[in-house]
Amino acid sequence: MTIHRPRRKPRKGKKLFGRKRKDRITTTPLVKKYWLQRYNLFSRYDEGILLDEEGWYSVTPEEVAAKQAKRCPGKAVLDCFAGVGGNAIQFAKRCPFVVAIDVDPDKIAMAVNNSKVYEVADCIDFVIGDFFQLAPSLKGDVVFLAPPWGGPKYKEKTRYTLDLLKPRDGHTLFHAAQVVTPNIIMSLPRNVDLTQVEELSWLSSPPLDVEVEENCVNGRIKCVTAYFGAITQKASCKDSAAMILCNFRMSLDGSTSA
Ligand SMILES: C[S@@+](CC[C@H](N)C(=O)[O-])C[C@H]1O[C@@H](n2cnc3c(N)ncnc32)[C@H](O)[C@@H]1O
To answer: What domain of life does the native source organism fall in (predicted)?
Structure first.
C-alpha cells in the first residue's frame, strides 16, 4: 500500500486536459465530447480541475456523485476506484472519513488536485494501490465501487453483463467488497443486466437488501446505482419502523429515553 504524497506536476508523457486545456481539447474528439459537459462533471471546472482521457469519460457527474454521497452521512466510506476524485469529493462533503484508492498514481495526483479545488483534500486519505490486494486489510462502514466499465464502447451492448467489468468480473468484485462490509454501493452502466445485479445480493445469507436507482443528468440516464445492505431505503425504513415500534412500546411501559 502506498500513501500518496501530493505531487505538483503530473508524470512526464501523460496527457492532461486541465489548466492548459484550450490548446489540447481539440486533440481527441472523445475528450471534446465530454469537455462540452465539463460543468456537469465538475461545477468548479474553471478553478483548475485536471482530468486525463480516461478521467473524462469515466468520472461520475457531480449531481450523481452528490446523490450517492447523500446516502452515507456520518459514515466512513472507502471509494475503491477513485479515479480523478468525482465521487471522493462529494463523499468528503458529507462523511467524516473518506479513503480514495486507485491503482494509477496519476489518477490519484489528479484526485488530490481536484479535491483541493473543492477544499476537501484534508478530509480524504489517498491511497495508490490495487483494491483486490488491499480489500482484506480495509475497514469502513460503506464500500463504494465504480470500477472501469471497459471504455465508452460499453454503450454498444444491448445488455451489459457483469463479467464485462474491469479489471475483474462483478461477482469477484462484490466478494472482495463483502470482506469489508455488506454496505456496498456500485456504480454501473445504464444498460446493465438488472437481474444479475439483484443476484449479487444472494451471495450473502440471508440475502442483502438491494435497491437500484437510475441516475439522470439533464433528463438523460447516465448510470445505474445499486445499493446493498443497510444503506438501502428499505433497510432504513425497517430501522425507522423498528424505532417507532420501540418508542411506542416504551410509551406503553411508561418509560422514556429522553
Ligand atoms: C470509472 S473510473 C472511477 C471514476 C471515479 N468514480 C470518479 O468519479 O472520478 C475507474 C478507476 O478505477 C481504477 N482502477 C482500475 N483497476 C483498479 C484496481 N484494481 N484497484 C483500484 N483502482 C483501479 C482506474 O485507474 C480508474 O481510475
So the answer is: Eukaryota
Residue 21 Cβ contacting ligand 1 at under 6 Å: no
Cβ atoms 75, 141 nearer than 8 A: yes
pLDDT for 205 equals: 86
- For ligand 1, whether the C-beta of 75 sits within 6 Å is no
Tell me, using a 6 A CB cutoff, whether residue 145 lines ligand 1: no
Dump strand ranges (E) for 55-105: 76-79, 97-102
**147: confidence class by pLDDT, cuts 50, 70, 90:** very high
Q: Please report whether residue 57 resides in a domain.
A: yes
Residue closest via CA to ligand 1's atom 3 equals 83
Domain carrying residue 34: 2-232
Higher confidence at residue 17 or residue 162?
162
Domain count within the chain: 1
* Per-residue pLDDT at 249 exceeds 70: no
The answer to whether residue 248 is domain-embedded is: no
68 and 225 in contact (C-beta within 8 Å)?
yes
Say whether pLDDT at 11 is over 70: no
Q: What is the CATH number of the domain that holds 143?
A: 3.40.50.150
Domain membership flag for residue 148: yes
What is the C-alpha separation between 97 and 100, in angstroms, rounded? Answer: 10
Shortest-distance atom of ligand 1 to CA 130: 20
Ligand 1 centre and the CA of 84: distance in Å? 8
Residue 104 in contact with residue 111, Cβ under 8 Å? Answer: no
Q: Which three cell numbers stand for residue 115?
A: 479535491
**242 occurs within a structural domain:** no
Would you say the CB of residue 66 lies under 6 angstroms from ligand 1?
Answer: no
